[in-house]
Design goal:
The chain is α/β, with parallel strands linked by helices and about 300 residues long. The chain has a domain at about 20-30 and about 55-85 and about 155-295: TIM Barrel. About 35% of the residues lie in helices and about 15% in strands. The protein has twelve helices and nine strands. The longest helix has 11 residues, at about 165-175. The protein is globular, with a radius of gyration of 19 Å. The two termini are about 10 Å apart.
């Protein structure tokens, strides 16, 4: 049976009280044993019927310049259900969309976004590096990106700077008319906590890269304390690097009332395994293509 695309709702998602969520965190230690027992009762090849959401990472960034209107519109045109974009606050308090805090990589011009006005940043060409067909693409304002979201589309807004952006982000989201379609994500705990306090109705997810072994430099498994951190801050989910996600971690997250997103996977076989493990969403640079490979179209 083909997998089904499912949008993670921004509102209406079943919510647990904070006391219940904290209690759930206290029993998470029991889940590895339960998961191991459950696995022994399942066939070796399991197909998940849990709906999964594919998220276009910085838009359809494999084909178009990342974090541009061209990239986002290409994702929507390809029937991709969700996009992810990154944002910074400029020197004149405008929110501009960019992954890097410096414009050198995508424009060839060395500008620090936090120290530059939106007017000078908008003069930069951030499309030509991807090909002449994209020459002239500008760094979009967040308002322009939110305006592209279709009726059933979902947008994951990654805050790359600090909590100083949050009042301006709240204002932009409020004016967009797309509030129910937006989720906030960040690697920064103070941003996540501040976003949840300021906009409690919006889903907020903690992004986290795996820690490194200090001797070997190898990536370590995710620690269960991440789940407790989310519960303490009343966050809604985790957004984790796909290589360190497994069925046990998914089960623990779900038992705590949290959703789990995997980033950033462009491999079909790995994506199939993530779906089987039960992740809620997969962020990918090739969303439309991966949907076809997974039978989501």
């Amino acid at each position: 049976m083909p997998l089904k695309i499912h949008a993670i709702p921004s509102v209406g998602t079943p919510r647990f009280s904070k006391h219940f969520r904290l209690l759930a965190g206290a029993v998470i230690a029991l889940l590895p044993l339960l998961a191991s027992t459950a696995r022994s009762m399942l066939p070796s090849k399991i197909k998940s019927h849990h709906p999964v959401l594919l998220v276009a990472h910085r838009g359809e960034s494999y084909l178009a310049p990342e974090n541009t209107l061209a990239s986002f519109n290409l994702a929507w045109a390809g029937q991709v259900p969700a996009i992810e974009f990154d944002c910074f606050l400029t020197a004149d308090n405008r929110i501009i969309v960019s992954h890097d805090g410096n414009t050198k990589r995508t424009s060839g011009v060395d500008r620090v976004i936090a120290e530059s006005s939106s007017q000078e940043l908008r003069k930069l060409d951030v499309g030509r590096w991807k090909g002449e067909a994209f020459a002239g693409e500008k760094m979009p304002f967040i308002e322009e990106v939110l305006a592209t979201i279709p009726e059933r589309g979902i947008a994951f807004c990654e805050v790359k700077c600090g909590p100083e952006i949050l009042p301006f982000l709240q204002e932009a989201i409020g004016r967009s008319g797309k509030r129910s379609r937006i989720t906030i994500i960040s690697f920064k705990l103070d941003v996540c906590a501040g976003a949840k306090r300021l906009m409690p109705d919006l889903p907020v997810y903690l992004l986290k890269a795996p820690d490194k072994d200090p001797k070997s430099g190898a990536s370590l498994p995710y620690d269960d304390s991440l789940i407790q951190t989310c519960l303490t801050l009343d966050l809604d989910g985790l957004d984790l690097q796909y290589e360190k996600i497994n069925r046990d971690l998914v089960a623990k997250s779900r038992a705590a009332g949290l959703r789990l997103i995997a980033w950033t996977c462009d491999d079909v076989d790995i994506a199939r395994q993530l779906v089987a493990d039960g992740v809620d969403a997969i962020t990918t640079n090739r969303a439309a293509w991966l949907a076809g490979q997974l039978g989501l179209k």
